[in-house]
Amino acid sequence: MNRREFMERLEALLQSVSPEERDEAMQYYNDYFDDAGPENEGRVIRELESPEKVAAIIRTGLSSAEDGNEFHSEHSEYRETGYTDTRFEEYEVPITRETGGNYGGNKDSQGRRMWTSRPLKIFLIIMIICVGVPTVIPAVGGILLGILGVLAAIFGVAVAVLFAGIGIMIGGVVCFAAGLVQLFHFAPAGVLLIGIGLLLVALGAVLTAAIWWLCIIKVFPSIFRWFVELCRKPFQKRR
Amino acid sequence: MVFNTGAALLDAIVLAVVSNEKEGTYGYRITQDVRRALDVSESTLYPVLRRLQKDECLMTYDMQFDGRNRRYYKVTEKGLAQLNLYRVEWKSYSQKITAMFERGVSA
User: Fold this and answer.
1) Of B10, B28, B50, which has the smallest distance from its Cβ to A31's Cβ?
2) Does residue A211 contact residue A158 with C-beta atoms inside 8 Å?
3) Integer Cα distance of A230 and B80 in angstroms
């Protein structure tokens, strides 16, 4: 964790206190890092331990000040190791040492500590990557390609309907033309063909316009946006 | 330090440290100065300073330093009075304890 991450986390943890108090604390710790200098950044962060601990101490200081009590006088004291607020101590003595008391108990507690050790964590992460990547990437890839397939199918249907509409319109025009020719041979049939032709042109035009409006203007942009959003999501979470 | 002590002594030490700087001093330096007497952790002093400020024993002001605003702490009249009270108390307390210890040694 670097200074920026530390301060961002601290600010987030102080959302429950008033903006005035938050600004005060942020000003103090920003000054503190500035005055300690970049070369001491790591040491300061180590000594502060964690943003959680700093935030807890700030909040406790505020609540006891509001109560009008002497500041955490009941809970704090000086020890060989320095000034300590006993509420923020982490008890590192394993319980097994008290109950077990013998050599076996000690070994047990140390063994348990091993499970949280750094090398083991790194090993577990490597294992997760080794096992996870070969299964997760094909799975995610498959799902994405599946979605892509469904989208392509929808697109295909839309294109088919569009061309059907255009086809009906062309058929209508042809029918209308045939009706005009027929008008001179047998007038009622001509009028009928002209009527059917006009109806077909209208039908085709409505179909074409409807599918155009539905797909090109409404559906496709939103599907496209949704798909892009879906692909971006795993990367956004990491920030 | 093997003796466990309450927060009043920390208040007194912080007031003493800040009052030693006539022009005021800042958080990092206060921490370093207090650490010459007590092994306080870096997160301990902010709430103490903030509370002393609210009790009007300390006042703050911002001053440009190195192209940024640095917050300075300065002891107020009330803070000085409080510090004098602590001084008197500490003197009588430490004298009594010292006398008791040294009588024990000579007996």
Assistant:
1) B28
2) yes
3) 63
Instruction: Please give, rounded to a whole number of angstroms, the shortest distance from the CA of B46 to a CA of chain A.
Output: 7
Q: Is the pTM of this model over 0.90?
A: no
Contacts of B89 (CB under 8 A, 6+ apart): none
- Chain B contacts of A77, Cβ < 8 Å? 4-6
* Complete domains list, chain B, with CATH: 7-106 (1.10.10.10)
Tokens of A70: 């002497």
**pLDDT, tens only, A28-51:** 999 999 988 889 899 999 888 889
DSSP assignment of A170-227 equals HHHHHHHHHHHHHHHH-HHHHHHHHHHHHHHHHHHHHHHHHHIIIIIIIIHHHHHHHH
How many Cβ atoms from other residues are within 10 Å of residue A101's Cβ? 10
Task: Judge: A83–B70 Cβ closer than 8 Å, yes or no.
Answer: no
Sign of the CA dihedral A16, A17, A23, A26?
negative
B44 beta partners? none
Q: Within chain A, what is the greatest distance between any pair of CA atoms?
A: 119
